Structures are given as structure tokens and as C-alpha cells.
Amino acid sequence: MNLAAQAAQTAQSPGFLSPSGVEVAFLLVGLVTLGAAVVSVTTKQLVHAALWLVVALGGLAVEYLLLTAEFIAWVQVLIYVGSVVVLLLFGLMLTKAPIGRSPDADSANRPVALAVATAAAAALVWVVADAFRTTWIELDGPARGTTGVTGEILFRHWVLPFEALSVLLLAALVGAIVLSRKKPEGERD
Amino acid sequence: MHLAYPAVLAALLFCVGLYGVLARRNAILVLMSLELMLNAVNLNLVAFDVWLRDALHAGQALTLFTIAVAAAEIGIGLAIVLMVYRNRGTADVDRLRDTAEAPRGTDEKAEAAA
After folding, report:
1. What is the pTM of this model?
2. Which of A74, A123, A157, B73 lies at a C-alpha separation of 20 to 30 Å from A187?
């Protein structure tokens, strides 16, 4: 992109100092989501981590709604909040996770993890903010992700991957059953 | 809306998940952090789909596929964790060190302990 076009784009795209209502909502929900995610990976109570994950995933569903992707938002609520978190809670229960505070929830390489994550966050945020500083999403006009639109494109252009995905889910189901089946006596794996 | 908002939020969520994967000891908490990372990618996909106005809606279709793959992953992952817990009595990832190379000079000690 040459300089004149870039300058024109900069001039026409609104600045950060006068955010629109959608942006303010996105920012607030984003802060809640990020805070819940941070608590979820740092809390010492294992069950609370799963419950904070619900807040983070629900916040992401709201962000999808704000980005006009309705169908994905409801799929997010249905699959993540509805089933993945329940699965995780069952997993915690079946591995007899302690209910109260467990002081050994974090492993010994926590400082290294913190350093790596901070470095990655700094690099990614710097690059991303620099690259998309002046890029503007047009949210007006016909909604991008209503159930009708999504169903139409999914079954018109993405049928083959969709069917392959159902085979993958079937394979995962069979695999999970085989893995968690109790072996008969005398048979070792 | 500026694209920078969802992009920065996705980057930060990804790094929070990265921290969780590296720092957590319980395997199920590692899986939780993995879900956070996958969700950050989904947010990126949705935001770029809305920005680019792709005629095929590739971003949203890929988001749905990612969600389905993540569901399969969590099912298999939990099955593996439960099997490890049943066989070993622990789900701590840093105690599963069978394939780890022993530090120099501790071979005799490890053998004596075993």
C-alpha cells in the first residue's frame, strides 16, 4: 500500500480516543474475560479454575455476539460452557482432585513459564497492535454470522470438511471408549 | 470497531493459556489452559472473517471446525488422563518422567531408589 492510500485510510478510520459503543462494550467484556482467564490459570483451587473458565468462555461468547457472529456465539455457549467444562469437572472429580486449596497446583518451572508468557505477550501485542492500528471492521450492514447465513455456507461450500469432521468425532468417541474401558483380569496393556 | 481490539485480546488470551500450559502441574488444568489457547485462535478467526467479508465465510467455518476438533481433543485427552491416573495414581504431569533422561551422576541413585 503506498503512502497516500495509507494516509487516506488513517484519515478516514476513527481514532482510539473516541470509541464507539460497541468498542466500549467489547473492551469491558474483554477485560472481564481476560481477568477470568488469568484467575483460572493462577488459582490454587482446582474446581474454581474450571468455574472461572466458564466466565472466560462465556465472555468470549459475548465477544462473538458483538462481532455479529451469532451462531458461533451460541455454539460456544452450547459446546464449551455446556459440555467441555462439565467434562473437565468430571475429570477433576474422577482423578480425586482436592476440593480446597492445593499448594502444589503450580509446578516448579512457574517463573520460567511466567517469563515465556510475558515475552510472548509483549512480542505478540506489539506486532499485532502495530499491524492493525488503523484497520477498521465495518460492523454495519447485513449480519455476518446469523444461523441462516452460516448454515447456507456450511452446507454449500464446506460440506466435505464438515463430513470429514463427523468421521473425526466418531473416531474420537470410539477412541475415548477404548481408552477408558476397564481391561479384563489378566490382560495387561 | 478497530481490528486491534479483538486481535490484542486474542493475543493476550493465548499468552495466558501458554502460561497455564507451562506452569500447571495437574494434567486437567493443562487441558483447561489449552482450551483457552484454542479459544484465542477462534476469536482471531471470527474477527478476521468479519473484517475481510470473505464470501465463503472461511473464518466462521474454520471456527466451527476448531470447536469440534477441540471437543474431540478434550474427550481423548481426558480419557488418557483418566487412564494414567488409574495406572499410576497421579495426574501430575511432572511426575510422569519415565522417558526423561536422568541428570548426570544420579543414575546410581535412581537405580537404588527403584
Report:
1. 0.86
2. B73
Whether complex ipTM tops 0.90? no
- Least Cα distance to A134 among A17, A13, A21 occurs for A13
Sort out which chain A residues have CB atoms less than 8 A from B78's CB and list them.
Answer: 87-88, 90-91, 176
Q: Which domain holds residue B53?
A: 4-98
Determine contact, residues B26/B55, Cβ cutoff 8 Å: no
pLDDT in tens, B42-70: 999 999 999 988 888 899 999 999 999 99
A80 to B6: CB separation less than 8 angstroms, yes or no? no
Looking at residue B95, the DSSP 8-state letter turns out to be G
Q: Is residue B109 part of a domain?
A: no
Residue B105 lies in a domain: no
Query: What tens digit of pLDDT does each residue of A71-103 get?
Result: 999 999 999 998 999 999 999 998 888 888 887
The answer as to whether B31 is a domain residue is yes
Do the domain assignments include residue B110?
no
Question: How many Å apart are CA A142 and CA A82, to the nearest integer?
Answer: 29
Which of B56, B81, B83 minimises the CB distance to A157? B56
Minimal Cβ distance to B22: which of A38, A113, A133: A113
